[in-house]
Model the fold of this input.
Amino acid sequence: MSVAVTKSRYQSEEFSARLRRRYAAERRFRIAGMVAVGIASLMLVVLLGSIISKGYTAFWQAQIRLEVTLDKQQVEERNYTALLRQALYAQVPTATDRATRRSLNDLLSSGAPYELEAKVNANPSLVGTTQTVWVRADDEIDQFMKGFIRRDVPESERRLNDVKIAAIDALVANGSIRSTFNTTLFTAGDSREPEQAGILGAVVGSALTLVVTMLLSVPIGIAAAVYLEEFAPKNRWTDLIEVNINNLAAVPSIIFGLLGLAVFLGFFGLPRSAPLVGGLVMALMTLPVIIIASRVALKAVPPSIREAALGVGASPLQTVTHHVLPLALPGILTGTIIGMARALGETAPLLMIGMVAFIVDIPGGLTDSATAIPVQIYMWADSPERAFTERTSAAIMILLAFLILMNGLAVFLRKKFERRW
Amino acid sequence: MNSKKLAVTAAAVVAMTAAFAGAANAQSRDQIRAVGSSTVFPFTTAVAEAFGKGGKFKTPVVESTGTGGGLKLFCAGVGPQHPDVANASRRIKKSEVEQCAANGVAQITELKVGFDGIALAYSKQAPHTDLTTQILWKALAKDVPVDGKMVANPYKKWSDIDPKLPNKEIEVLGPPPTSGTRDTFNELVMLEGCKKVAEVKAAVADEKAREKACMTIREDGGYVEAGENDNLIVQKLTANPDAFGVFGYSFYDQNRDKLQTAKMDGVELSPEAVQAGKYELSRPLFIYIKNAHAGVIPGIREFIAEYTSERAMGEDGYLGDKGLISMPKAERDAARTSATNLTPLQL
Done:
C-alpha cells in the first residue's frame, strides 16, 4: 500500500505514515478489546471454577449400611436411636467398652432415627424383621470420606478421634459406607446439621416472594409505562415523574428494606419474615426497572404503526392494545425478567423485614415465615461447621442455575418475538 | 387483550388486598420467634431444630440481628407481632430493661446458657507465640505512651514491643465495630490490657479520656477489619501464617487442624479454662424470655426447658458440639430452675 509510484496529494509519504498509524491504532484497539474480553472470561472461569470445585462434593453424601433388627417393643417406644446404635455396635468389632460406644454414636447423623421411623411408618410390616438400611452418616464422617479432614495430625487436633477413624476404616473394609446422591439438599429445609440441611425451604420462599413481586410490579409497571409513553401530556409534572422514576432505579436496595419495615411492618402490621412483605418490597424495587425497560420498548415501536392504526380509525386505546403493546412485548418481557432476576439475587432489603432468619419448616403460604436462596447462602457461609462450606458453593450453583434459566428465557422470548423494521 | 389485561390487574389487586387484610387479621402466632446476637444464634438455632423435631410444636424462627438490635425488637412491646425470645452475647443493660418496662414488657426471665471464648488464633505453620493482654494492647492501640507522652503507635513488628516475640509485622484480623465480639474484645483486651500499662495513667490524667484512648484501635493497617464472616478470617489465617485472628471459640474448634491459639497471660483456651474463669477472653451468653408470652404463644416453656436440659447445655450436650462452652453444674441447675419458674429478672 505504501509503495506509491505516482506522488499524488493522497499518496504522499505523510499520507502513508498517517495511514499506517491509523491501522496501528485500529489494531491496538482491537487487541485492547480482546484483552478485556479475555480478562472478563478468565475472571468468570476462575469464579465458576472455584465455586464448582468447592461445591460439587456437596451433591454426594456418605451413608452407612446397618442391619437393623426392628424389635417390636423398641419400635413401640419409638426408640429408633437405640435400634440404630445396636446395629452399629454389631458391625464394629472394637465396640465393646462404653467410651468407644459413645464415640461411635457420633458416626450416625442425628436425623437417622427419623429416617428409620419414616420407613417403618410407611411399611409397618417391617416390625419384627431384620432389615438392611442405609442411613445418613454424620457430616464429619462425610467430610472425612471426602478427604477434607486430615488423619495425619495429632488426635487432639482432629474433629475425629482415633476410635472413630478405626471404626470408619472397618466399615469401609466391609463395604458398609457408600456415597450417594445427596437428595436431602433438594428436599429438606434448613438445618444446623449439614447432612440434614437442604435448600428447598429457601427455593419455595424465593418463589413465593417472586410471585408476589411479579403480580404487583408487572401490571403496575406496564400500565405506568404505557400511560407515560403513549398518553401522558408532556409537561413539567410528567418530567418530574420521569426524573423520579430514573432516580428510584438507582436507589440502594437496603433503602427499600427500610421502607418496607416502616410501612408494611410498622404501619400495616404485616407479619415479619413473610414472603408477602418480601414480595411487596421487591416489587417496589423492580418497578422502576420495569417501567424504564417498558418505555424503551414502547419507544422502539415505529410511529408509522400508530399512525396507520389511527389512520384506519382505531381509537388511541385500540392502537396501543392491538398494535403497539404486542410489538413492544418482547422488550417489556426481557426487562421484566431481568428485573425479576435481580430481585431473586437480593438479600439487603430482606434483612430489614426479618427474612434473614433460621427457618426449618418449608413455607406453605404467603404469610408463613420464609427465607430466600441468597439469604440461605449467606447463612451457610457464616456457619462454623466445615461441611457447610461445600453446601454454600452448591447453593450458589443452584442460584446461578435459576438466574441462567431466567436470563435464557429472556433471550429466548426476545429472539422468538422480536421484529425488525 | 385490553379487557383481559384489565381483568388480570383487577384480580391481582383484589388478591393483594385480601392477603393484606388476612395477614393483618392473623395476629395470633403458633411459632416461637427469637431475635438477637449472632454469637448465640448457632446455639439457639440448634435448640430450635431439636425442639421442632420433637414434633409437638412448630420449629421456632430465629433471626440474627445483633444483641442491641435484638433487644430493641424484644422490648418493643407485648403481643404476637413482637418476638418472644432475645439472644444476647452480653447482659441486658439497665436502660434496655427500662425501655422494655416502658413498652409494657414488665417481666423478663434471664437465662445464662453458657460461655463463649474469644480465640486469638494463627496458622499451624507459624511458630508458637504466647501473648498477654498488655502486649496485645500495645500492638493494637492507636496511641501508646512513649517517654511519658501518648504518640501514634510506633510498633510495626511484634519484636518492637518485646524482643522475645517473633520478628514479623503486626497484623491482626478481627471483627468490625458493629460486632458484639468486637465490643467484648474492646472491653476484655483493650481496656484490661491498657490498665496494666502504668505509663498510660501517667500520660493521660483524665479518666474518661484515658478510657477512650485505651479503647481506640489503630487504623494504620495493624488491625484489619475482616467483616462479620469468621470463616473468612479462618481462610485468611491459613493463607497468611504471619497474621493473627480474633473470633469465637466454635470457629477455632472446627479448625483445630489448621489453627493454633496463643496463650493469653499464660492460659490456654480450653473449655475447662473458660469454665473455671481462668481464661480472660470469655463472656457469658444469655437468652431473655418475655414472661407475658408464656402460655400465649404455644411452646415457650417447653422450648426453654429443652434449652436448659442436660442433653442440650450439659457437659456432653449437643450445644457443646456446636462450640458452646458449658457452665459448671451448679449454674446449669440454677438456669434450669429459673426456666421452670420463669423467675423475673431484677437488676
